Amino acid sequence: MGATTIDVSRVTSEGKLTWFHFRLLALVSLLTLFDGYDITAVSFAAPELAKAWNITDKSAFAPVFSASLVGMLIGAPFIGWAGDRYGRRPAVIASCLLFGISTLAMMHASSLSELIIYRFIAGIGMGGLLPNASALNIEYSPVRHRATMIIVMYVGTALGGALPGPIAAILVPLFGWQVLFLIGGALPILGAIAAWLWLPESVRYLVGNKKNNNEVARLLKALGSSKEIYAADAFHIGKAKKPQSASMKMLFSGGLKVATPLVWLLFILNLMGYFFLLSWTPLLLVGANVSIEKAAIAFSIFQLGGIVGGLCIARPMDRWGLKSVIAYFIASAPIIGSIGFVAKMESEILLMLIIFFGGFFTLGIQLGINAVCAMIYPTAIRSSGAGWAIGMGRLGSIVGPIFGGMLIAANLPIEKLYLIGAIPFAIGAVAAIALECVSRKYFSGKLLDDNEAVTGGRP
Q1: How far apart are CA 253 and CA 449, in angstroms?
Q2: 66 in Cβ contact with 120 (< 8 Å)
Q3: What is the mean pLDDT of residues 260-266?
Q4: If 0-12 CB within 10 Å is exposed, 13-18 middle and 19+ buried, where does residue 169 land?
Q5: What gap in Å lies between CA 295 and CA 352, rounded to an integer?
Q6: CA 305 to chain centre
Q7: Number of alpha carbons in the 13 Å side-chain half-sphere of residue 153
């Protein structure tokens, strides 16, 4: 009898959703929730820190907002590469420990300089979590549910980003600004323990790196595969003749030579606009005579809108792909451009409504392109590809808050600030249309070549 080999990409791509998928999705979503919380917590600590440390210049917080983003710029590609080399699971655990411990240390900061250092280190961990969690999630997802599984996972980030607002309003008056960092540090450490206990390694990673066949069989059985899995002599990934080793060159081979720069551009543009909004909106609204409490509520509504927007784009992306992202980019520009005008109208209902839709489209875009960068790369470079996209996007997220601080220092009115903030989304619409054209030319309109034999479609 000849040797029996099993194509794990077929098993994972063509299978049905099982409790295994839901448990995995719940765990990685929880970890990204902790990540989202830590990203935004410092924005709500800033007003209290300004009072405690007698800081009168709001723009002084720009380096603090950007420090974690610089860390992500380093952590996303580096720990993404480590995930491709050493496994998704250990990379996820290490990332959670790194940003959890660093955030706890922020409780003891006594100056902006110390805060910047701790935020930078935390950013390295936060940057490393997302590409590895998304790669792990997508490598178990059935093909017809891939975009939805990735977007639902990233909804955890949006949920986490919405939590510091209510916590700041309720707990900070009682326990001080340190409580924001106590929560933000303890939760990812607990998450790392949970990941060590329950997070599985990617079955595609195990096969691609010639790891234990018994572990591969056990994981495939957990997906609902037949008992014959245990009788297999070997496993392989799609039509690939041999495992591929991750390399930077693979990000630019085949159709990816055009697609990768466009994906990076989408990340840069969207994160530039999004982090401008994320970092400065609470302070800008307070400066427009909106109370601190209502500014916190408005910011949480912005995040809630993003959650709804991300969920609404998920199934359309599974069906229509990039067309949904294009529509969101087009709609976001006028919405963001109008926030400053609405803030001056002193209509709370209208302000909350426009901020809700601002979050709906801008965060919906981010969740959509997160799915794109996880789907477009083959297993050997999936964490690296997602890591580089996220890392390059941090260039935009670094520039956004810093440029916003420069505009605020120039005393521009709030109406002009938000009009300028809408420009990246308008350019992003053009870039998304270009990526759709590239997808049609090189990938037959699809984002992923499941045979894994080539890198990114036909050359």
Answers
A1: 13
A2: no
A3: 93
A4: middle
A5: 10
A6: 16
A7: 30
Q: What is the pLDDT of residues 58-81, one digit of tens each?
A: 678 878 877 887 898 899 999 988
Answer yes or no: are the C-beta atoms of 31 and 137 closer than 8 Å. Answer: no
Please give the share of the chain, as a percent, with pLDDT higher than 70. 86
The CATH superfamily holding the domain 5-443 is: MFS general substrate transporter like domains (1.20.1250.20)
List, for residues 351-405, the tens digit of each pLDDT value: 889 999 998 999 889 888 988 887 788 777 888 888 899 888 888 877 887 788 8
Give the largest Cα separation in the chain, rounded. Answer: 79
CB 89 within 8 A of CB 195: yes
Burial 426-447, CB ≥16 within 10 A → b, else e: bbbbebbbbbbebbeebbeeeb
The upper half-sphere exposure of residue 415, i.e. CA atoms within 13 Å in the direction of its Cβ, equals 4
Q: What is the CA radius of gyration of the chain?
A: 22
CA distance 279 to 55: 17
Asked if 146 and 118 touch (Cβ cutoff 8 Å), the reply is: no
308-311: long-range pairs with CB below 8 Å, 24+: 308/356, 308/360, 309/359, 309/360, 309/361, 309/362, 309/363, 309/364, 309/367, 310/151, 310/154, 310/155, 310/158, 310/363, 310/364, 310/366, 310/367, 310/368, 311/151, 311/152, 311/155
Q: What is the DSSP string of 401-446?
A: HHHHHHHHHTT--HHHHHHHHTHHHHHHHHHHHHHHHHHHHHHTT-
- State which amino acid sits at residue 402: I
How would residue 226 be classed by pLDDT, with cut points 50, 70 and 90?
low
Give the pLDDT of residue 453. 38
Q: Mean pLDDT over all residues of the chain? A: 82
Question: Where does the pLDDT of residue 33 fall: very low under 50, low under 70, confident under 90, or very high at 90 and above?
Answer: very high
CB 9 within 8 A of CB 452: yes
Looking at residue 338, what DSSP letter applies? T
- Look up tokens 């085949």; give the residue: 254
- 247 pLDDT band, cuts 50/70/90, is low
Domain ranges of the chain: 5-443
pLDDT of residue 458: 37
pLDDT given at position 300: 76
**C-alpha to C-alpha distances, 333 to 383, 405, 424, nearest whole angstrom:** 31, 21, 8
CB distance 455 to 258 below 8 Å: no
**Residues in Cβ contact with 18 at an 8 Å cutoff, skipping those fewer than 6 apart:** 222, 223, 224
